[in-house]
Amino acid sequence: MFVSPQISALQRHFMRAPSTLFTALALLAPLAARADDVVTYPYPCVEHVHRTMPRVDAHVVVVDLACAAVEVYSTRPRARASTVSAFARDTGAQIAINANFFESSACGLAVGERSVWHDTYYDRCRSSFAFGPTDTATRASLFDSFEHTRINPFPWAWNVVTGWPTLLRQGATVFEPEEPLGMYRYHPRTAIGTTTGGTHLVIAVVDGRRSGLPGMTSLEMVPLLEEFAVADAINLDGGGSSALFIEREGGVVNRPSDRVERNVANHLGIRITAPQR
């Protein structure tokens, strides 16, 4: 079970980065209180932490990629533009989230079950995670897809999702020369990351845009992910697109800010293919 430390992850983050102390003063208030986490284990090799506290309503899902029962996959090009729950039902995912930013197609490289999306657009979406099966586990890797918007650079990668910006790389906070204007604004958020060595996938979905619950800035997502030992992480589409589906816990477990699910370009899904003993 994950418990809140006596010193918050956000406080530790700014102790390491005193030059951003002015930002810390603005951000510490929402996260400084001790969280009342509800922890469940909906499937083998999966842990779900629901954190509610003043101004925060966050879901964190930790998936053990060393489990042979776990399959990570994304949306095929022809199955685009559905809600997260529809994607989950159509593909048999027990867990699913929204993925790339999108307009008419996905922003940045998208690969779904070995099928590359050939009509994606760039618009600075270059922070990508690749996933592929091995004999005993799921391989996951963060990479910069700047030169590969419509080409899968890894033969082993069956699935790729892309966001912007990179939040963490090898345990260090990333500040990119160009960052989304919304990075420092409060919004619902979806982010994914992996622990050192890619042993665990961590999914974070944060609600917002309702009374008393603004959401988070992208910078606030960093210490939340760090608390779960994430070393590499990216920001995915957020706002009204943020949705987390867990079948065994009733479907969509967060509260999308549009009050209904949006159709989103693509998705990231987790299938639990067999019970673990």
Can you write the helix and strand succession as a string? HHEEEEHEEEEEEEEEEHEEEE
The domain count comes to: 1
Distance between the termini: 20 Å
Q: Outline, from the CA principal axes? A: globular
Residues in helices, as a percent range: 10-25%
User: Main sheet, how many strands, which sense, barrel?
Assistant: 8 strands, antiparallel
Radius of gyration: 17 Å
Overall pLDDT: 87
Structural class: alpha+beta
Sheet with the most strands: spatial strand order = 1-2-3-14-13-15-11-12
Number of DSSP-assigned strands: 18
Number of helices: 4
> Approximately how much beta-strand content do the residues carry?
25-35%
Provide the low-confidence segments as ranges.
1-34
Description:
With 277 residues, the chain is an alpha+beta fold. It has one domain (38-272). 13% of the residues lie in helices and 33% in strands. The chain has helices at 9-16, 21-31, 84-91, 218-227; strands at 36-40, 46-53, 56-64, 70-74, 95-98, 111-112, 115-116, 127-133, 138-144, 159-163, 166-169, 172-173, 189-195, 200-206, 230-235, 244-246, 251-252, 267-272. Strands 1-2-3-14-13-15-11-12 form an 8-stranded antiparallel β-sheet, covered by helices on one side. Strands 4-18-5-16-17 form a 5-stranded antiparallel β-sheet, covered by helices on one side. A 3-stranded antiparallel β-sheet has the order 9-8-10, with no helix packed on it. α1 runs antiparallel to α2 (21-31) and α1 (9-16) crosses α4 (218-227). The longest helix has 11 residues, at 21-31. It is globular.
